[in-house]
Every structure is written in structure tokens, then in C-alpha cells.
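Please fill in the sequence for the structure shown.

STRUCTURE ENCODING:
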């Protein structure tokens, strides 16, 4: 059976698909992850552009409406992200093992399964989003705009899902450059279309939503076409099956915990948003602006963690465990080097950055945004280390450990936000983040240290000692 797998010779365009099991780990990770970092910057521009245009061209209430809706959209993003990770990790492992026929089948299986899931979520969203907005105590003055934004967003869910699957496959094949190009073009276009629909056509919040729908749709279609072309160039001895329940189960083992993780985080954020909503539109607007800036950083580090998951999965598939430990060290160094300029920028220019989202903001909105950033920013060094460790755990299939760290962070942040808000007001909510991050980081680091590469490293050291003797 092994010989049959290794006979499946070529894997297409070698200039685009990259084997992460060879080369110096630090160099390999930098070359692979930096385009991913650039990609997520442009990905976040979709949401930042929506808030920016809403705040600058429509008004503070529009910014609050988009920000309020964003917390609910994170539920749908969680499912798309889980499908991305499940497909990406399994495809990475099969690619590392040179099992190209099963690799193709896993791609087809992930796409078919994701289509079914997406359809179910569209039905749920259409029926329940208004109820969710009321559940989180959305103020009446922004309720209509929040509902309108969500209605349009739900129709774009197929684009969200299939684009995430496509980027996960690109990453699994070691190609982080192609999705970067797609996102750079589509995100820039999104900003221009946002402004056109809102300022020239006077479409209000609906214009913001339709701009995202159109630009993400074009990006999705192009990405999926390139994926199928890439798969066609990967030659196998036998034709790959269109669906496999065996591979579906493997994908689900990774995807379901990732979906649960992101979903519960989204639910937690919704609960936190409901607490924030009690402080009025000014605090909501300030939080909406600053949380976009925070999410830009956290999502960037999460994406780098995803890249490390692909690196870990390929090396695990190839049976090269010592390289995983080397990759972890390189990953920590990489994220901390990226933390330095981000922390300096957010600490020194927080007022300017928050003000950038709003036109003549109220003092409450501006002070809220600045306060939020200055409390959270120093702890980016902590949470980035957690996300690197989580990337290794997920790539190795250690999902129980991954879930424990994630839920510890979430539960602490939600519970402390509700408790501290009563004692200290809005500032108590912001303090819940660093406490949750720090506690979960300690757990994730301990789980990483006890991974299977620990024994592999000991075995490697013992072999070196025997050679000296």
C-alpha cells in the first residue's frame, strides 16, 4: 500500500506547491508565513473598510451598527474557519506523506461537506438573526441597520465558505503567495466599492454590505478555479474519488473542535457585546473601532499559527518530529518580532487610529477606544506565544489539549467581563482579556512541551551521545 502511495509521482507546479519538510525551519517558516500575514491583513481590510466607511461617510450610529453585527457574523466565520483548518491539516498530512490521490479526495470531500453546512447556516441565519440582535440588547437606534447588514451578509456565505476552503488548500500545499495576491486585489477593490456605494450611490449600510458581497464573491470564484487547475496538474496512478467517509471523519476530527472553538468564542463575544451594549452607543462605537484594530492583530497571529499547523502537519506526515520543535522556536521568534512594531504603534498612536474610523467622534467613543487598546496591547507578546503553541497542537491533531486552552481563555474573559463590569464599568470588561490570555498561554505551553516530539528529541540526543562513545 505504501509503495502505491509513493508511486503517485508529481505534484504539479513546484514553483507554487512547497514541501515544508525540507530546508532550515526558520527560513521555511518566514518564507511561508509572511505572505499569510500579508493575506490576513488584507482579509481584515474587508471588515475594517466596512467600519471605516460606515463611521466616516454615514455616522457614528452606522459604525455602531456594523460593529454590533460583526459579532454575529463571527459565528458564521467560525464555521468557515473550522472547515478551512480541517481540510488544511489533513491535506497537509497527505501532501507530506506523498499520498496525492487521497489528498485530492480530501479536497473534494471538504468542499461537498462544506456546501451542505453552508446551506444549513444560511437557513438558520435567515430565520434567526433578528432574534440574535434582540438577544444581545441591540439599541433601537441601530437595530434596523444591524439587521439589514446581516441579511445581505448571509447571502454571501457561500463565498465565505469556499474562499476559506481554497485558502486552506493553498496553505496545505505550501503556497501562501497565491491567496495573498487574491486578497490584496479584492480588499483594495472592496474599499473603493465601499466608498462608491456609500458616497456616490447613497446606499448607506446596505452599500457597505453589498460591496463586501461583490468583492468577496469575485475573489472566491477565482480562488476555486485556480485550486481545481492546481489539482488537475497533480498526477496520480488512479483517479481520485469524489467523496470518502473515511477522509470526512479525519477532516471532522480537526474541523469540529476548531468550529466549536471559534463558535464558542463568537458566542462569548456576543455575550460581552451585550454587556457593552448596556453602556450606550458611544461606548459601542469606540469599542467597535478599537476591537477591529485588536482583531486585526489577533487574527494575524492566528493565521501565522495556521501556517505553523501546516508546517507541523507536513512534518508529522513525513515522520520528522524534531523539525516540529525547531519550527515552534522559529515561530515564537517570528511573532515576537512582529509584536514589537505593533505594540509601539498601538500604544503611541491609539487616539489617531481610533479617530481614523470616525468623523467627529464623541469624547466617550474616542476615550473608550483608546482605553481598550492601551490595556490589551502589552499582552500581545503573551497571546501570540499561545497561538503559536495552538498551531502546533492543531497540526499534530492534539485537539483535546487545544480545546482546553481555548475554552479556559474564553470562559475567563466572559465571566470576568460580566463581573468586573459591575464593579469598574467598561474598563473592567477590557481587563478580562489579559487575564484570559495569560492563563490560557500557560496551559497551551505546557501541552506543547508534552507533545510526541518531546520523546523524539530525547531519542535524537541519545543517538548523538552513542555516536560520541
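FILLED IN BY: designer on duty
SEQUENCE:
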Amino acid at each position: 500500500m505504501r509503495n502505491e502511495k509513493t508511486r503517485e509521482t508529481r505534484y504539479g507546479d513546484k514553483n507554487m506547491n512547497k514541501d515544508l519538510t525540507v530546508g532550515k525551519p526558520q527560513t521555511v517558516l518566514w518564507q511561508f508565513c509572511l505572505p499569510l500575514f500579508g493575506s490576513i491583513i488584507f482579509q481584515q481590510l474587508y471588515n475594517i473598510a466596512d467600519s471605516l466607511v460606515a463611521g466616516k461617510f454615514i455616522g457614528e450610529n452606522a459604525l455602531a451598527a456594523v460593529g454590533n453585527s460583526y459579532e454575529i457574523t463571527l459565528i458564521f466565520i467560525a464555521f468557515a474557519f473550522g472547515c478551512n483548518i480541517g481540510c488544511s491539516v489533513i491535506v497537509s498530512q497527505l501532501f507530506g506523506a506523498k499520498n496525492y490521490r487521497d489528498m485530492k479526495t480530501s479536497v473534494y470531500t471538504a468542499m461537498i461537506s462544506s456546501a451542505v453546512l453552508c446551506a444549513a447556516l444560511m437557513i438558520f441565519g435567515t430565520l434567526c438573526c433578528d432574534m440574535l440582535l434582540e438577544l444581545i440588547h441591540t439599541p433601537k437606534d441601530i437595530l434596523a441597520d444591524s439587521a439589514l447588514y446581516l441579511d445581505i451578509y448571509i447571502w454571501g456565505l457561500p463565498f465565505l465558505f469556499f474562499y476559506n476552503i481554497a485558502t486552506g488548500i493553498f496553505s496545505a500545499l505550501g503556497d501562501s503567495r497565491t491567496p495573498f495576491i487574491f486578497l490584496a486585489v479584492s480588499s483594495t477593490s472592496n474599499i473603493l466599492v465601499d466608498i462608491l456605494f456609500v458616497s456616490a450611490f447613497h446606499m448607506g449600510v446596505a452599500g457597505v454590505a453589498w460591496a463586501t458581497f461583490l468583492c468577496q464573491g469575485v475573489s472566491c470564484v477565482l480562488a476555486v478555479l485556480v485550486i481545481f487547475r492546481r489539482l488537475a496538474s497533480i498526477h496520480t496512478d488512479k483517479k481520485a474519488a469524489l467523496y470518502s467517509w473515511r477522509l470526512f471523519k479525519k477532516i471532522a476530527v480537526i474541523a469540529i473542535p476548531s468550529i466549536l472553538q471559534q463558535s464558542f468564542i463568537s458566542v462569548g463575544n456576543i455575550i460581552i457585546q451585550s454587556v457593552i451594549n448596556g453602556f450606550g452607543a458611544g461606548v459601542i462605537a469606540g469599542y467597535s473601532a478599537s476591537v477591529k484594530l485588536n482583531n486585526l492583530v489577533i487574527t494575524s497571529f492566528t493565521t501565522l499559527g495556521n501556517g505553523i499547523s501546516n508546517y507541523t502537519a507536513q512534518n508529522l506526515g513525513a515522520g520528522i518530529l524534531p523539525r516540529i520543535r525547531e519550527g515552534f522556536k522559529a515561530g515564537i521568534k517570528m511573532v515576537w518580532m512582529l509584536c514589537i512594531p505593533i505594540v509601539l504603534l498601538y500604544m503611541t498612536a491609539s487616539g489617531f487610529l481610533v479617530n481614523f474610523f470616525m468623523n467627529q467622534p464623541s469624547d466617550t467613543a474616542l476615550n473608550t477606544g483608546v482605553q481598550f487598546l492601551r490595556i490589551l496591547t502589552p499582552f500581545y507578546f503573551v497571546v501570540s506565544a499561545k497561538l503559536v503553541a495552538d498551531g502546533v497542537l492543531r497540526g499534530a491533531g492534539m485537539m483535546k489539549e487545544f480545546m482546553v486552552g481555548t475554552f479556559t481563555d474564553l470562559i475567563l474573559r466572559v465571566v470576568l467581563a460580566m463581573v468586573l463590569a459591575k464593579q469598574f464599568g467598561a474598563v473592567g470588561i477590557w481587563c478580562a482579556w489579559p487575564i484570559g490570555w495569560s492563563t490560557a498561554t500557560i496551559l497551551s505551553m505546557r501541552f506543547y512541551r508534552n507533545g510526541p516530539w518531546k520523546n523524539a528529541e530525547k531519542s535524537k540526543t541519545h543517538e548523538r551521545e552513542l555516536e560520541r562513545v
